[in-house]
Amino acid sequence: MYKREISLVRRIAPVAAAVLFLGACAFADEALLPSLTGEPAPSAQPQAAAPPPAPQAAPSSAPTLFGDSTFESPGVTNAQPSGTHVGQKINDLRGDLARLQSRMSEHNGQLQGQRAAARQSANAYHSLVGDVNSRLQLGTTPGNPELVAEWNQAQAELNKVGESISVLNALSNEAASTSALAAFLLESTRATFELRGAVEEDHRQLAILEDEVNKTVVVIERLLNELSEDVSRTQNYFSAERSNLTAMQIAIDNGEYIGGSLASRAYGVAAPPPAGGAASLVGQRQPLVVIRFADPNVQYEQALFSVVNSALERRPNAGFDLVAITPNLGTPAQISLATTKSRRNAENVLRSLTSMGLPADRITLSATSSAQAQGNEVHVYVR
After folding, report:
1. Predicted local confidence at residue 204, as pLDDT
2. What is the sign of the dihedral through the CA atoms of 101, 102, 104 and 109?
3. Does 277 reside within a domain?
4. Residue 123 CB contacts under 8 Å (≥ 6 apart), including other chains
5. Distance linking the first and last C-alpha atoms of the chain
6. What percent of the chain has pLDDT over 90?
7. 68 falls in which pLDDT band (50, 70, 90)?
8. Most CB within 10 Å of its CB: which of 15, 116, 280, 314?
């Protein structure tokens, strides 16, 4: 079922970080450090981050997930037994080939049926996604229940496509077993040429049978190869669409898109976190952005998306360190309560980033206190 994972994002918070992220990913002047509290940063005029273009509506038909080949049995030629011992052996091999081809036909029927069902689900999924995208691009109410229902239905259709992956894997295992039987049958047919007591008719029938077994082996190998390709394409498609659904979930909460998924930009190996932890970051390195939680409903997600997206455009293998900052003000009990609240704020920022498509293994989370902080803050550092 649809679950609300992050707060609504309806307005673009003032931010200068999107245009200041240059060179070594640090600001040249600390006075220009952006603040996502809705108030202008000291000594700088607030600049609204330009909203990224909303993703285009998805096509109504699914991409090519599966091949379109069918795998027909080459058949078995009927012949009268010659009456020899070798002729009886050939007749037995001919029966084995017929059963093998029947099994291969079953594999083909299962494959075509699974392809048709998955295509139907994928087409239904893209139709639903296209409708939701169209309404989100025009703008709608946050948490629109009609879009929530369509999102749930789209997720159900996508899950059906995902289920086809395990079915195709199981079918691939069965086809591999059939391929092994076909190889054994081919060796048995060739070995029959060496048997004594055969007549010329036996060898003529053996030659025909060998050709038919060879053709069957080729068809089964083609079936295995196409099954492997189908599984690979479907896995990539399913993973990408799951990420797109997550971005769409955020957009439905917001009533509009804040941007595409960050997953498409997050690749490579992120740098390791700093050895000194939070202490080596605060006061020692310039943060990418500072989110000041001066009130309970800070609208930071649009600005955060713009800044992180800009960072990933310049350094696709970048990682991010979130540090919850608590001011050293008040009694120990007050500081403890503020620390808990600050950690919760940082956890919300982390959930926002992962919901935007940034892998969790690219983010670290830590906490510290600072005498310079006037309130709870979350600093975001790039590495």
Report:
1. 93
2. positive
3. yes
4. 60, 61, 62
5. 36
6. 34
7. confident
8. 15
Compute how many other C-beta atoms are within 10 angstroms of the C-beta atom of residue 369: 17
Q: Is residue 230 part of a domain?
A: yes
Q: Residue 37 sits in which domain range?
A: 17-52+265-382
Task: Tell me: pLDDT of 39 over 50.
Answer: no
Q: Which amino acid is at 251?
A: A
pLDDT-derived band at 30, boundaries 50, 70, 90: very low
238 Cβ neighbours under 8 A, 6+ residues apart: 158, 161, 162, 165
99 and 238: one domain? yes
Same domain flag for 151 and 105: yes
CB atoms inside a 10 Å sphere around CB 145: 10
CA distance 298 to 375: 13
Nearest 5°: the CA angle 7, 13, 16 is: 135
> CB neighbours (10 Å) of residue 61?
12
Dist. CA 83–CA 291, nearest whole Å: 91
Q: Do 252 and 5 contact (CB within 8 A), yes or no? A: no
The CATH number for 108's domain is 1.20.58
pLDDT digits (tens, 9 = 90+) for 294-325: 887 888 888 888 888 888 888 888 889 999 98
Per-residue pLDDT, 259: 58
